[in-house]
Amino acid sequence: MRLALALPVALLAGVAQTFSFAPFEAWWLQIGALTVLAYLASGVGPGRAALLGWVYATGWLVSGLWWLYISMHDFGGMPPWLAALAVLALSTLLALYYAAALALWARLRSGQPMRDALLWAACWLLAELARASFFTGFPWIASGYAHTVGPLAAWAPWVGVYGLTALSAFLAYAIAALARPMAPPTRLALGLSAVAVLAVPIALPSTFTQPTGELSVSLLQPNVPQDLKFDPARIDSNLAALGRQIEAARGALVVTPESVVPFTRAELGAGAWDSLLQPFATPGRGLLIGIFVGNADEGFVNSVVGVSAAASGAEYRYGKRHLLPFGEFVPTGFHWFVAMLNIPLGDQERGTSNASFAVGGQRLRPLICYEDLFGEDIVASVVGPDPATMFVNVSNLAWFGRVLVQDQHLQFSQMRALEFERPVIRSTNTGATAVVDHHGRVTARLPALREGTLDAVVQGRSGETPYARWLSAFGLWPLVLAALGLLLALGRRTAPGP
């Protein structure tokens, strides 16, 4: 196909991949879009393959991350043209990982369909791992997240989200290759391999954890508009409404969103703080409340504070460990850019604790906002002594509007539930406040952009999935080494074509 036609087709295929994620959940479209890219890249040299990969990934990331514009323009005060340019620049820079992956694949491919399918999967996997790891990582809508539903989802407790990425990439290339002429034995082997990827999970064990009892929860959604969250004229009324919502909650565990108190306890005042905690003097009840901890000299930490009568006066604190670039810490050389955004508390300190919060016979591991994208960071909480029996995500996505971002973030929680077979409960400011069971199913959810409390009974789980075991022992290195091993074993040694 001529380059003038191939490039717009690649761009549209990249946009189509965005529609494979929540709220659309068209898992087959992720494989189909990547199949189009594999077909376009077949038979071209490394330079053209790189360009196709870059255009595809740019279309995918711009269409999937456009909501970043809202935070920079609507709430950060950045001029529209500059906010749009910033989204485009981020997307095109991240797309370079995929350009490099396709260039490497085009250089190493042998022309043998099975070998090239494995090489394609290895190169795509390395690109996704690089995006998830370098410069603190930003794996938002990584390919594997499309498969919280569908036949590949059963692989999640075995290989995790990046293993799903590799499997879906193999399928995509196999389908693209099967559309071309090849010897019947090769066609049969490639087709059976693709069927095996889809069918093997049916025969694999699928339950690795056991119930640890039930906990009644009340998940708060205050629905405070982002432009009023830090408004001095509205803070008192916002806190009064929060106090009423906490007092009315009836769950054994009450959870508020991230930074629901948008400053420190010292600024709040002892009387106001004590009134928020008063309902939790009752044995068997607990509160997790989002607040900032620290001061101007030592730095501020985006935190949740846990309070329960069983704590015997000891206060639980969890500080966010994986900070968001530009929103919560300033990368070197970018203070000028962050200054334009006028984000309150935009340069924070990292938390250090990894401990769980105990209440009602369950152990809860908090995750603040996009920390639930990094399973490798939280696996220590489910392996070893006193493992967490459920995850608690507290977020404030009001910065980014309603469309796509809330559903995408909920899908990441679904993937963590599948990987570790733990329920995930979510309290957010404007959505998606929800309960996800240990099978990754959303069992309850509040409507977005509406004040409310989600009451539910959640079953805790203990035990370890295969993915949790090897991720805890080796991190993501088995995937890295497997991909590199395939490149070394299967890549051709001769000079590439034009």
Class by alpha and beta content:
alpha/beta
The first-level CATH class name of the largest domain:
Alpha Beta
Number of strands: 13
Average the pLDDT over all residues and give the rounded result. Answer: 90
Strand content: 15-25%
Q: Just name the CATH architecture of the largest domain.
A: 4-Layer Sandwich
Major β-sheet profile: 7 strands, mixed
Q: What is the chain-wise order of helices and strands? A: HHHHHHHHEHHEEHHEEEHEEHEHEEEEHH
- Parts with pLDDT < 50 across at least 5 consecutive residues: 494-498
Rg, please?
24 Å
Q: In percent, how helical is the residue content?
A: 40-55%
Tell me the span between the first and last alpha carbons: 15 Å
As for the number of domains, it is 2
What secondary-structure arrangement, pairings included, does this model have?
Layout: H1 3-18, H2 27-41, H3 46-65, H4 68-75, H5 80-108, H6 113-133, H7 156-178, H8 184-203, E1 209-221, H9 226-229, H10 232-248, E2 253-255, E3 261-264, H11 265-268, H12 270-277, E4 286-295, E5 299-308, E6 316-319, H13 335-341, E7 357-359, E8 362-368, H14 375-378, E9 390-395, H15 405-420, E10 424-428, E11 434-436, E12 442-445, E13 452-463, H16 466-474, H17 477-490
Parallel strand pairs: 1-2, 2-4, 3-4, 8-9, 9-10
Antiparallel strand pairs: 1-13, 4-5, 5-6, 7-8, 10-11, 11-12
Written account of the structure:
The chain folds into two domains: 3-206 and 475-490, no CATH class; 212-464, Carbon-nitrogen hydrolase (Nitrilase/N-carbamoyl-D-aminoacid amidohydrolase, 4-Layer Sandwich). Helix content is 47%, strand content 17%. It contains 17 helices and 13 strands. Helix 2 (27-41) packs across helix 7 (156-178). The two termini are 15 Å apart.
